[in-house]
Amino acid sequence: DRTLQGSTINFGNTLTGTASHDLIITGALNLDGAATNIVDLSVSTTSDLGANVTTSGTQQYDGVTTLSTNVTLTTTDSNVTFNDKVISEGETNRNLTIDTNGNTGTVVFGNGTTDTVGVTNGYDLGVIDITGNLDLNAAIGNGATAGATSIEVSGISNLGADVTTSSTQTYTGAVTLSGGDRTLQGSTINFGNTLTGTASHDLIITGALNLDGAATNIVDLSVSTTSDLGANVTTSGTQQYDGVTTLSTNVTLTTTDSNVTFNDKVISEGETNRNLTIDTNGNTGTVVFGNGTTD
């Protein structure tokens, strides 16, 4: 194993390990050549990544991580952890691709509420493409300000912070919401598997919703534009769909004594007439169709 300690450790060309030992950077890392054949890599302060990093084990970046080019981080079934902000250098949004060699490894963003991806002390990321799982503890973006162009996750996702992108968000595996009310803002928010809330918080979709797995344990659900419902939705509170709602399968919407509101058209996808079942748990909740004569 090798430990390099100093204010900043600069690599101007390739960095090659033995394939059986770790590299510990105690200080800042400035990497301008591809790093390969390392087992575990850890950096105690800031990292300026200007090249790809491949390890067989974990990668841990404890300080602010700055991408000065499009970067690919690769592990073998191991975690990649960012314990501070992740930003692009300059005005170019840099792509971050992380490949954990399947859905065993987890990508962890943030270990505190002040950590963010994009927007803070730097510029947004471009495409975030994760082959693996996601444990999100740092907001991507800040309110309406996007922190990345888009995000795609192949494995399961724990969303413990809000996500704002200028384009799509795609969560292929099961999604769990944690930590509080969640706002997901983008052109389209795609859920390819189940979506599970905390049973005590809301989900706000600012953009379009494409749902292909059952949504449960959510209090209030609201969608600001179109909804493509390919699975059932269960909330303890209200459901509000402001754009055109399309049923791509037979759908059951369930609330607990709360309203379900459609503020635009409700249609079936394709030539198959889809069934819509709405259960408000008695006669307390109300189903509202339309807020105008054109609905």
Descriptive keywords:
295 residues, mainly beta, 18-stranded parallel β-sheet, elongated
Structural description of this entry:
With 295 residues, this protein is mostly beta strands. Helices cover 0% and strands 51% of the residues. It has strands at 2-11, 15-16, 23-31, 35-38, 41-43, 47-49, 53-55, 59-61, 65-67, 71-74, 80-82, 86-88, 94-99, 106-109, 116-117, 125-131, 133-136, 139-140, 148-153, 157-159, 163-164, 169-171, 175-177, 182-191, 195-196, 203-211, 215-218, 221-223, 227-229, 233-235, 239-241, 245-247, 251-254, 260-262, 266-268, 276-279, 287-289. The protein has an 18-stranded parallel beta sheet that branches. It has a 17-stranded parallel beta sheet that branches. A two-stranded parallel sheet has the order 15-18. The radius of gyration is 22 Å and the shape is elongated. The termini are far apart.
Tally of strands: 37
Helical residues, percent: under 10%
Q: Which shape, going by the Cα principal axes?
A: elongated
N/C terminus separation: 67 Å
Summed up, the helix count is 0
- Main sheet summary: 18 strands, parallel
Report the average pLDDT across residues. Answer: 95
- Measured by DSSP, the beta-strand proportion falls in over 45%
Structural class, from helix and strand content? Answer: mainly beta
Uncertain runs with pLDDT below 50, 5 residues or more?
Answer: none
Roughly how many Å is the radius of gyration?
22 Å
